[in-house]
Amino acid sequence: MRTFQHKVTVNDMGAIVVFGLGAFFCLWHRTNSVMVLLGFLLIIVTLRAVDRAIHSKYVLTDEATLLVMTGRIGRTKRVVLSDVKRVEKRPFAFRLGYYALLEMTDGSVVSVQPDNVDSFLSALEKRIEKKDNKV
Hints:
This protein is α+β, with helices and mostly antiparallel strands and 135 residues long. Helix content is 44%, strand content 27%. It contains three helices and seven strands.
């Protein structure tokens, strides 16, 4: 089993700041109950964004599956490596970083943002090749 941590990007930090400032603004100007409700909703969204940025991780198991854990609050997504058709390294907008795009045999895609994309891709490709050789 091998674990890779999530890369916190500029977009993640920007979203956390924007949601936090929005919550602060709504709670500062609490002229009616809608602003208070919106402020508390933005606090919840901010906490979820912080949780996702800090606690997300990607686990390659010995059973040839990839577990995508999106924080402590979020759900865990299971990706069977035998269903992966293609793996690509793609840049973010404005080339601010890279992410891994996994294309599945049914046409769906899974996007992951590990901290070390090259190491993640090499470990993933080794697991896929090992699984193909066993079959």
